[in-house]
Structures are given as structure tokens and as C-alpha cells.
Design goal:
alpha+beta, about 30% helix
């Protein structure tokens, strides 16, 4: 039992590090429309994870691969909403959200969306932005929580994608798969968990969380 415990513990801390290293290798080309965010890292993670049902530490909520099974519109029941927030590209959003498991909007895309950057600048210090599923309109992330907006944007800028921490995730609607893929409970591809020394870090495509709230 001691050997099993040590193996599980090692997976929790070593596996995310390996995923992060391979991810940095695979996103070198920032000029392409889509980046291979973590394909090599995912394959290695799948190989190493074995039967471990919680390769990432709580409060991450793990989900089954069946969440991303084929549905009426790719991995989702419906296409992305017609009028996405911040005027993001709907065609790109639909492709990444519903017909993709490994690719991402180009690194730094969120910084090229003036409507989004303006909202981050105009959000009062005691307020936060809610990020909704581009397909269903369900709340997925809240930022900033436990830090300032400046810190949230700085970390996101450093890593290339909006980067959320555990306390900023709406776990009722978000699931983490064994290989680090981060998805909604309805089958929307969102991004990947790429942990660092501070813990889990969810690097998320802005086009996937640009939905409008459903009434």
C-alpha cells in the first residue's frame, strides 16, 4: 500500500509538471490561427495516469470522457450563441468549442479583443467578470477572485490565455478530464489545466467563455 500511495502522490505533483513542459514546447508558433495546446502532454499524461481517478488535486472535479462524446453538433448539443460577447469570432468559437479537443485560439488572442480588454479596465476593484459557456450560457468562471484584476491579466498575459485558479471555477458546470482537458458539463471544450508551482492553472480560450447568460 505504501508503494501505491507514493506512486499516486508522485502522479499528482510530477504529471502536471510534465504536461506543462510539453505544452510550452507545442505552442511555440503563435502566428497560426490555432495552436496545438498540449497534444504531446496529453498523450504522456494518459500513459502515466493509469487508473488514478484524481490525477489533479481537489477542488478540481473530475469528469468522464463520455462528456465529450459525439452529439448533435460536434461534442455539444447546440452551436455557439449567435451574438457572443466582446465581438469574438463566432466561426472560430464554434470550431474550438465543438469540433476540437486539442487546439486553441492563438496565444495572446484575448489581448487583441478591445471590447474584452476595455471591460477588464472598467471593472471596479470590488467587482468581477463572469465568463459564460459560449454554447449554453451557463456560468463557468469568475475573475478575479482572491487577487486583483491586474494580477489576473498579468498571469493571463504571461501564459497567453485567460488563466483561472481553482477558486475562480464554477465547478457545478466545469469538469476536468484525466489528461488535463477542461470542459463544460455539456461538452464544450474550454482549454487545459496546466499547473504551476501555485497549483492548478486553467488556460481557457476566450472564445469558449464568451457566451451570454441564459435567463
Amino acid at each position: 500500500s505504501k508503494m501505491l500511495l507514493n506512486r499516486s502522490t508522485a502522479q499528482i505533483f510530477i504529471l502536471p509538471l510534465i504536461i506543462s513542459i510539453f505544452t510550452k514546447i507545442t505552442i511555440a508558433d503563435n502566428n497560426s490561427k490555432f495552436n496545438n495546446l498540449s497534444l504531446m502532454g496529453q498523450k504522456l499524461a494518459k500513459l502515466m495516469s493509469g487508473t488514478n481517478t484524481q490525477p489533479f488535486p481537489p477542488p478540481a472535479v473530475m469528469g468522464p470522457e463520455s462528456i465529450m462524446s459525439k452529439k448533435a453538433h460536434g461534442t455539444s448539443a447546440t452551436p455557439v450563441q449567435e451574438n457572443l460577447r466582446w465581438n469574438v469570432d463566432r466561426d472560430v468559437a464554434d470550431r474550438i468549442c465543438n469540433f476540437n479537443r486539442h487546439y486553441a485560439e492563438y496565444s495572446g488572442y484575448f489581448r487583441s479583443v478591445p471590447e474584452f480588454m476595455n471591460e477588464t479596465n472598467d471593472t471596479p476593484a470590488d467587482k468581477e467578470i463572469t465568463f459564460y459557456d459560449s454554447n449554453t450560457g451557463k456560468p463557468l468562471f469568475y475573475a478575479p477572485r482572491g487577487r486583483t484584476m491586474e494580477e489576473f491579466i498579468k498571469e493571463s498575459r504571461n501564459h497567453g490565455w485567460p488563466s483561472f485558479r481553482d477558486e475562480e471555477v464554477e465547478w457545478k458546470n466545469v469538469r476536468l478530464l484525466q489528461n488535463g482537458e477542461t470542459v463544460s458539463v455539456d461538452g464544450t471544450h474550454l482549454g487545459h489545466n496546466l499547473p504551476d508551482g501555485k497549483g492548478s492553472r486553467y488556460c481557457i480560450n476566450l472564445v469558449c467563455v464568451a457566451g451570454n447568460p441564459t435567463k
